[in-house]
Amino acid sequence: PKKVTTLSLASKKRRGHKITMVTAYDYPSAVHVDRAGIDVVLVGDSCAMVELGFDTTQPITLDQMIHHCQAVKRGAPSRPLLVGDMPFGSYEFEDRDVALKNAYRMVKEGGMDAVKFEGGSTSRAKIVKHVVEGGVAVLGHIGLTPQAISVLGGFRAQGRTAIRARALLDEAIRLQDAGAFAIVLECIPSNVAAAITEVLEIPTIGIGAGGGTSGQVLVFHDLLGMLSHPHHEEFVPKFCKQYARVGMEINDGLAQFKQEVEDGTFPGQAYAPYVMTEAEEKMFN
Ligand code: KIV
Ligand code: NA
Known about the structure:
The protein has an 8-stranded parallel β-barrel with strand order 1-2-3-4-5-6-7-8, surrounded by 7 helices. The model has no long low-confidence stretch (mean pLDDT 97). The protein is an alpha/beta fold and 285 residues long. Helix 5 (96-108) crosses helix 6, helix 6 (122-133) packs parallel to helix 8 and helix 8 runs parallel beside helix 9 (190-199). The longest helix has 17 residues, at 162-178. It contains 12 helices and 8 strands. It has 2 domains: 6-244, Phosphoenolpyruvate-binding domains (TIM Barrel); 248-284, no CATH class. It binds 3-methyl-2-oxobutanoic acid and sodium ion. Sodium ion (NA) binds at residues 44-46, 57, 85.
């Protein structure tokens, strides 16, 4: 299968074909996302929450992100476009070379094809431009930008007034002008996302932004129900459709293993494959 590139994504938008993106954080999730034929694998900093158990995306470090990127690269080495999230604190500085240096680490050490930055302010767009000029493709991300949780005050929808929607459109155009190859639109009204998508030449990838974007992204654990359980409530975002409840299957397998070990059914004869020859056994006994 042909490698997905920033150019093939642009061509998908032009032809009206939807782009698919799913997060992955380790070898098995990357193998699954690749085998499913998803266009873009995002090593999201949502890793901090769904893999590492933090309440926000803020704590994860660049070294930790790179560690996860490397595993994803081994699981999906050739076909999908690999995008890595630049973590909180690794790209926002006025010294744009900090962002560029850290983006190079995501590419050279992490094996990523591109990086993602949150935010679309004038100063952020300058950083994007610098990194793109340095040779690293950048995916933008506006609307709900979880790294800014302490400023936003919570995980809530953005761009719900005319003025805020207008500001989002300005951010999107700014990022396009800075050289971003696509933009993630998170938790904004559907009509605003559709309008931004229509104005932009580059593709938009929505999450909680309705059907008018050039593509859709969901978090692996959310869409597959990794933490679903027969007796515990699982948090699922309002905008997320759950396509499987993998956690149920995991729980079932673990419960059966426990039962069979405790009642002596496992391993039994069937799973005790190693035997001695009779001659050796005689000497041993
Ligand atoms: O970290 C992440 O998973 C993301 C997606 C939700 C776009 O940024
Ligand atoms: Na993210």
